[in-house]
Each structure stands twice: as structure tokens, then as C-alpha cells.
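REVIEWER CHECKLIST
Item 1: Sequence provided? yes
Item 2: Single chain? yes
Item 3: Sequence as submitted:
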Amino acid sequence: MSRAVASSDIRPRIVFLSGEASRIDRSWDYSDVEKTLSAIGYQTAHYSFSDEVLAVLREESRYGQVIIWPTAYTIGQDPQSRQISDALLAQGIPYVGAQPRTVQATSKIQLDKILRTLGLSTPKSWVIPYSATIDRSAVRMIARGIDQEVGMYPLVVKCEYSTNSLGVSAVHNLDDLIATIMHQLGAYGQDIIVQQWCREREFTCAILSYKSCIFVAPIEIILDNAETILDESVKHSYRGLRLEPVEDVDLSRRLCSMVSSFWQSTGGGDYARIDVLQDREGNLHIIDVNLLPAQDEGPPIVSFFPRAFAINYGLTYRECVLAILASAISRSPIALPADVAAAGRRLSEPGTAYKNS
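Item 4: Structure as written out by the authors:
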């Protein structure tokens, strides 16, 4: 697919494309993104994925200006079903999002393998395979083995696939570990990961790619209670949660270098948010890759992704949305609309944060 090389006053139609929501992975509400684009003159539409819709989008992409913004990873309810990005790429349809290889990292089991291959640090973890018939005695035996090996709590229990911290819990003793594993297996029907606790500090790094550069925006997630985990309830309420700039220049560069290395190695894409923990020894561990980061403008809550780019680059919410489009359109034959090109240029202004070119 050829790349856009010029700016234009013509604006492509933006189609938000959803899949089938599962118990653990759902289509995101990108209504604030849509409202922002509509307010500045972009035509938008919503479709649910089907072969018929794919055929229509293929024809429209051949003869008109359209770009697809997926709001789910996969077509079906099974998180291992075919990726929406894979289907769009196969048909040559321009889209906003990650490359199919990068989407594999949304599996926390695959992410661990990728990080180890790259020589990047990841917390020690154990995988409990899902079975339709859950054997409590087998779970108890596995949990006791983990308890004896690690020797200290808390531990983190999470699902292989999850969004917005759904299915993530901290456990503080063996009985809690057994009960949580049993609950997660039954509630979510997928492999469960138990991970060693290494949260001395927590960061999230928002990423935008534009042309040949990767722009990283790290922020620190500060919780009132050091033993509190960033679970679904905290993310939804922001109760006891603060987002702060990373003031330590060396730490900021370490964070940016690590996540950009990961992003490049997997093929990357347009935008993402990568979560990182720092342990007591100062080691950094990537723990999650979110390729559909929430984009709420607020009030009362501004999502982590636009907040990170506001803190690090001074981008307004509108500029952040348009910068994501700039990345996607620059990979397509569509000419960059003037406002999209301007948002892309804002990322490269002197004094902005980390850029890896």
C-alpha cells in the first residue's frame, strides 16, 4: 500500500468497526473520538464486522476515501478468533490500529514469550491452563506449588486476555490464591496467569507512530495505597489515582527506549499504551500491551492515553485524535487532510518528549 505524500482539504470518511464482544474483551466506546471528528467536519459511520460489510468497505476504499477505525481486536467472541486488522490488511483496506503481529501481544502468555525473546524483563509467572471441567484438587496442587516456590505475597492473578484491568486481582495468601484462580477459570473461560508482585512504581507509556518516528509519552500511575492494584474499579472511578509526569529524565528515557524497542520489534502500528512496573531494585517490567486504549475526553475522567500526550507533548484532545489519524493515513494512499498533517507536525515540535526515529 503506497503512503500518503501530500496534504489535502478532502477528508476521508471514518468508519468505526466492531466485532462480537466476549466476556473479557469488548468493543470500546469511542464516542468522544467520533464527536470530536464530527465537530470538525468528518463524516463517520458504525458497522459490525461481516463478510458483506468487508466487501462494501473494500469497494469504497477502491473508489473513495475511507479509513476504518476498529473498536475490537477480533471478529468473533473467542479472543483467539481472526483479527479484524488481519482481515482489513488482506483486502488492502486502510485502517487505524496495530499490525497483526503486534496484536498477538494482547495475549499475556504470548507477550511474556516475546519479551523473553527480546531480552526484556518480565515478572516471573505461572500459567494455569483452562479446562471445561475445573478440578479443584488440581488447582489446589498448582497453587501450593506456586506458594512454596515464591514464598511471599501479594501475587497477581490475571486472565490471558483482558481489557481495562478486567479479571485482574491481587491475592494475599494461599486460600485467596486458590479461590481467585477457581473464580477466574469459571468466570472467563481462558488460561489464567499468576504473576509475581513487583509493583514498587507503575507507569504507562502512550505510543504514537508517525511516518518514520515513534513518539512515546510516559506517565506515572500513583495510587494512594502502595499495596493497591490498578484494577477495574480503580480505573473506572479514578478514586485514589493520580497521573503524573515522569520527572526523572534517565528513568523516562529508559521507559521510552524499552517500549519503543518492543514496538519496533513486533511491527508496531499507529497507537497503543504499554504498562510497565518498576520493582524495588529499579528493574522495569512490561506487563501489558493495550492496542485499543480508552479515549474518553471527560469530564470527569480523561483516559490515560490522551492525558499522557497532554502531559508530555501539550496536545489537546482534538490534536491527539488527529495525530492517531495522521499515523494511519500516512500508511495509506489517502492524502493527509491539512488538520491531520498539522497534528502530526505538532509531535515533532522542539521541546516535545521522547522521539525514536
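Item 5: Key structural point noted by reviewer: Residues 211 and 330 are 6 Å apart (CA to CA).
Item 6: Recommendation: ____
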